[in-house]
Amino acid sequence: MIKNRVYKPFAFKSHMINKILQQVKANKKYKTIADSVVKTEINVYLKSHQIKMNKENSNQINKQDIKNIRAKLHQNYASFQTKKKRKREIYLENLDMKKLLSITLSTKERENNYNKIYKQISEIAGKPKTIVDLGCGLNPVSYPILNKVIKSKPAYHCYDIDTEDIKFLNKFFKKFNINGKASILDLRDTKKLSQIPSSDIIFLFKVIDILDKNKKNHKKSEELIKILIKKTKFIIASFATQTITRKKMNYPNRKWFELMLERNDLKFKTIKTHNEIFYLISLN
Q1: Distance between terminal CA atoms of the chain?
Q2: Which of 64, 121, 203, 255 has CA atoms 20 to 30 A from the CA of 169?
Q3: Cα–Cα distance measured from residue 261 to residue 221, given in angstroms and rounded to the nearest whole number
Q4: Are 152 and 128 in contact (CB under 8 A)?
Q5: Cβ(159)–Cβ(196) under 8 Å?
Q6: Which residues, 6+ apart, have CB-to-CB distance to 259 below 8 Å?
């Protein structure tokens, strides 16, 4: 007598999540995003659309669902990339800082402002011994500018969700003889976030708007700030003051953010460039 096969709900769900993961990452644009990040996005999507993954509805995910999940990942990551990313190994080999900074839109926009940004940060925060850079993208390639401006060589821990970016940044640190380490981290994972090393400064450049995108409130960003302020002396959070199409925003200052900082007894000063506003945050 053949026994009836028993399906374990969790195991089956895990199998289906992996199947969806493969479909999402079949597009090369999303291939290098960490599996854990994509799985989180899949689970958020399934929950928000009230889709339960089980034996009966295993085929409920369709092409449009895959497109929607990719669109969310694009909002959170891919829209900040440029086509020069594939050439970065050549730029690194040639130690071409200008071209390295042109790889992502954010670093390209900051290229002529890094001196000003780091100078004003150092005037308030001094010479940090340790820096943490969250949602870093390729901002760590500006380290030589930081080093020149503050006349110090802080340890540099940076985190992002793209596996290839992380590999590249570790090569960059080695090539420039920098005491740095790049690692994968999804900022929505509060348990892992609370385990980052303590530091003198945490960079949080253009991250908060992404975390809060399509949400009716700012609970996620407030939770993030509350966790981070326990791990550092200063948080430097930045926001874009232009839209993706380069139009000036009507209200570039984030009043809601300022009110949230005041509510949590945090003081701040601002630095403004033509396309970005930086909040230098510390405890009162």
Answers
A1: 73
A2: 121
A3: 11
A4: yes
A5: yes
A6: none
Spell out the alpha helix ranges (H) of 26-96: 35-48, 63-76, 88-93
Cα angle for residues 66, 183, 269 (degrees, 5° grid)? 95
Q: How many whole angstroms separate alpha carbon 169 and alpha carbon 155?
A: 14
CB 188 within 8 A of CB 162: no
> Helix, strand or coil for residue 14?
helix
pLDDT tens per residue across span 43-57: 888 888 777 666 555
pLDDT of 5: 42
- Residue ranges of the chain with pLDDT lower than 50? 1-12, 79
**Encoding tokens for residue 179?**
């005491």
Q: Where are the beta strands (DSSP E) in the chain?
A: 130-134, 155-160, 180-184, 199-205, 232-240, 266-272, 276-283
- Comparing CA positions, the residue from 110, 99, 96, 180 lying closest to residue 149 is 110
Same domain for 58 and 105? no
* C-alpha R_g of the chain: 21
C-beta separation of 232 from 201 below 8 A: yes
Q: What tokens does 216 get?
A: 């009716």
Same domain, 30 and 98: no
CB 105 within 8 A of CB 82: yes
Q: Please report the beta strands in 129-218, taking only residues with DSSP state E, as ranges in sequence order.
A: 130-134, 155-160, 180-184, 199-205
Provide the 8-state DSSP code for 231. Answer: S
Range 55-71 burial, b when 16+ CB lie within 10 A, else e: eeeeeebeeebbeebbe
Q: What is the model's pLDDT at position 177?
A: 96
3-state secondary structure of 275: coil
Q: Which residues are bridge partners to 137 per DSSP? A: none
Judge whether 121 and 201 are in contact, CB under 8 Å: yes
Last residue of a domain, one of 51, 76, 101: 76
